[in-house]
Design a protein that fits this description.
heterodimer, A: mainly beta, 7-stranded mixed β-sheet, 0% helix, B: 116 residues, mainly beta, 6-stranded mixed β-sheet
Chain lengths: 117, 116
């Protein structure tokens, strides 16, 4: 595997289900991100992890719970979601500490297409 | 707060024609600017980025972009479009969000259709 991988690629869940999205990066990076991509809206940053520590939570509802056990893996645990949470969830990684911070390139996975019924 | 505007939601060009996708940003300091491309069912792939120096930046797949500070713009160009360029294109600005953290703020994207 190379780059950033995400599983599953597609997920359908009911509002009472609990599921998890998984992201793995094979680039040796130390920062990982979750984004939400909804139709007709810009990508929304949800969470940032630097060196396994959560450094940003962009006012995300508590029904989304991230977990970063190590620098290579990132999870997004989902429970009691709403239909409006249906979207493409993208994971990204970067090498924090290079290029002065704001210029770090983020590498994206293919995303998980989530449908909440 | 920073923001990115991509004025064109959808653009259609003929194969072989030239392309320009517009991007305007709002940010008080020197921006770090990016263009990403997303093919259907795929994640985002970096085309090019601007940090400093030469305002004309070359990227992959024959794309280039020009940073114009006076116009707060970072437009993406390609002299001759190929059918495989059909995708959605996102402009983004990188900014520090406090301490060592930084974030990318994206525009809403421009969908490119290429006619044969």
């Amino acid at each position: 595997e190379t780059g950033v991988t995400q599983t599953p690629r597609h997920l359908v869940m009911g509002m009472t289900n609990k599921k998890s999205l998984k992201c793995e990066q094979h680039l040796g990076h130390n920062a990982m991100y979750w984004y939400k991509q909804s139709a007709k809206k810009p990508l929304e940053l949800m969470f940032v992890y630097n060196f396994k520590e959560q450094t940003e939570n962009n006012s995300v509802p508590s029904r989304f719970s991230p977990e970063c056990p190590n620098s290579s893996h990132l999870f997004l645990h989902l429970h009691t979601l709403q239909p409006e949470d249906s979207a493409l969830y993208l994971c990204a990684s970067s090498q924090a500490g290079t290029s002065g911070g704001a210029g770090e390139t983020q590498y994206f996975g293919p995303g998980t297409r989530l449908l909440v019924l | 707060a920073q923001s990115v505007t991509q004025p064109d939601i959808h653009i259609t060009v003929s194969e072989g024609a030239s392309l320009e996708l517009r991007c305007n940003y709002s940010y008080g300091a020197t921006p770090y600017l990016f263009w990403y491309v997303q093919s259907p069912g795929q994640g985002l792939q970096l085309l090019l980025k601007y940090f400093s120096g030469d305002t004309l930046v070359q990227g992959i797949k024959g794309f280039e972009a020009e940073f114009k500070r006076s116009q707060s713009s970072f437009n993406l160009r390609k002299p001759s479009v190929h059918w495989s360029d059909a995708a959605e294109y996102f402009c983004a600005v990188g900014t520090n969000s406090g301490g060592s953290n930084y974030k990318l703020t994206f525009g809403k994207g421009t969908l490119l259709t290429v006619n044969p």
